[in-house]
Design goal:
It is a single chain. By secondary structure, the protein is of the alpha+beta class. The chain has two domains: 55 residues, no CATH class; 31 residues. Helix content is 32%, strand content 11%. The N and C termini lie far apart (68 Å).
């Protein structure tokens, strides 16, 4: 699908650009569809996959039917792992792993 307004009358159509215009039209349509779903009160955005799903289906199935997400404990933010320096080699390692197994690089155990 070649957009006629993009060509001047004295230029010849470049056939190799047709897939590009088709792709651009597809991306533009997908953006418009997403904007429509954002405005539509029947749809809600899944917090896990960021896809749009029908509210009624999420209520009926108990979660997102696109990715399988269900509301619960897994929606809480996970604590960040604390990193510390190994006293022997100075490499940053996870504190819990350093205490349990020692340094994975130099083998130091404390």
């Amino acid at each position: 699908m070649v957009c006629p307004q993009r060509w001047r009358k004295d230029e010849t159509k470049m056939l190799f650009m047709e897939p590009f215009w088709f792709l651009m039209d597809f991306v533009e349509k997908a953006g418009r569809d997403e904007d429509d779903m954002r405005r539509d009160p029947r749809f809600v955005q899944c917090p896990n996959c960021r896809g749009f799903a029908l509210k009624s289906e999420i209520r009926k199935r108990g979660g997102c039917y696109l990715c399988g997400w269900t509301p619960g404990v897994d929606t809480l933010p996970q604590p960040r792992a604390r990193k510390v320096k190994c006293p022997q080699c100075g490499r940053l390692v996870l504190k819990s792993e350093l205490i349990k197994r020692g340094c994975y690089l130099c083998g130091w155990k404390g």
